[in-house]
């Protein structure tokens, strides 16, 4: 009962904070916390907060997904990102009987080497840029179907000789009807601020606060799992207007170029991520996703390519599970995701049997 009351109190406190965080979304810091840290999630369109099984890599996006099936599991991910940047994560989970399931996640982003120049443009050296997140998460099964989770984030950023530190909090709830293969999740992500800025007297910006709602349904008699996730619910209109078109006139007619407001349907779609997973068995899965907003923001008129689409596959052999995903961004490149999970409890069972 105490846990339910505490969760409800924090829930309403976070609702009270919506306007505060939503108004400054464009000025947020530590945006690397929104990077996709799992190959399976990447193949699902970049968001998978609404699938509850034994995959530890999903818990970073939704701590309420932590459950006893993840006990003593280690998950590694490596992502070859754009423009020479790379990042990776490592996670470990432990279940404590009658208390809950807990996890620690370490995320590292390396942006590569950069030339350092003076005010004339002459190269005088080089510097590195990187960011790190250390996250502590926990979840408890409140009743047969509902689980609540939280994740505390410690965030570090180093850009040449400048550094910053911040803290954030994720709160989540998941309602899972196992016999119906139906899962619904609500997540309040990145409630927090910079505690120290890159230089003395600098502004301390908030984290990129976001509300997400997702529903997934696995077919009882077919190997399909369907998913819909709504992102950025704290802000309705995510459409973009090119400022270069404001006040511009048509050179042929001399009339001012009309700027049309995005329709209701497009505004809704900009929040939406679709995913389909083919579950042949617990050992073989295929994913395909479509992220409408990513496609709208990154496609080019001449060659939209696979921007917004993603594809993934996962294979489990023994106590190991390997996932790979390819996420399309634009014609200049795609992103490759690799994840590996080790199930130590299954390793112990195999040793006993042998």
The fraction of residues assigned to DSSP E strands is over 45%
Main sheet: strand order = 1-2-3-4-5-6-7-8-9-10-11-12-13-14
Order of helices and strands: HHHEEEEEEEEEHEEHEEEH
Helix content: 10-25%
Concise account of the structure shown:
The chain has one domain: Porin. Strands 1-2-3-4-5-6-7-8-9-10-11-12-13-14 form a 14-stranded antiparallel barrel. It has helices spanning 2-16, 18-22, 39-43, 264-269, 292-298, 344-353, and strands spanning 73-80, 86-96, 100-117, 123-141, 146-159, 162-177, 182-196, 210-218, 224-230, 272-281, 284-291, 309-317, 320-330, 333-343.
What does this 3D model show about the protein?
The protein is mainly beta and 354 residues long. The protein has one domain (2-233, 271-353): monomeric porin ompg (Porin), CATH 2.40.160.40. The protein contains 6 helices and 14 strands. It has helices spanning 2-16, 18-22, 39-43, 264-269, 292-298, 344-353; strands at 73-80, 86-96, 100-117, 123-141, 146-159, 162-177, 182-196, 210-218, 224-230, 272-281, 284-291, 309-317, 320-330, 333-343. It has a 14-stranded antiparallel barrel. A hairpin with a 3-residue loop joins strand 2 and strand 3 (100-117). The longest helix is centred in the N-terminal third of the chain and has 15 residues, at 2-16. The chain is globular, with a radius of gyration of 22 Å. Residues 1-25 have low confidence and may be disordered.
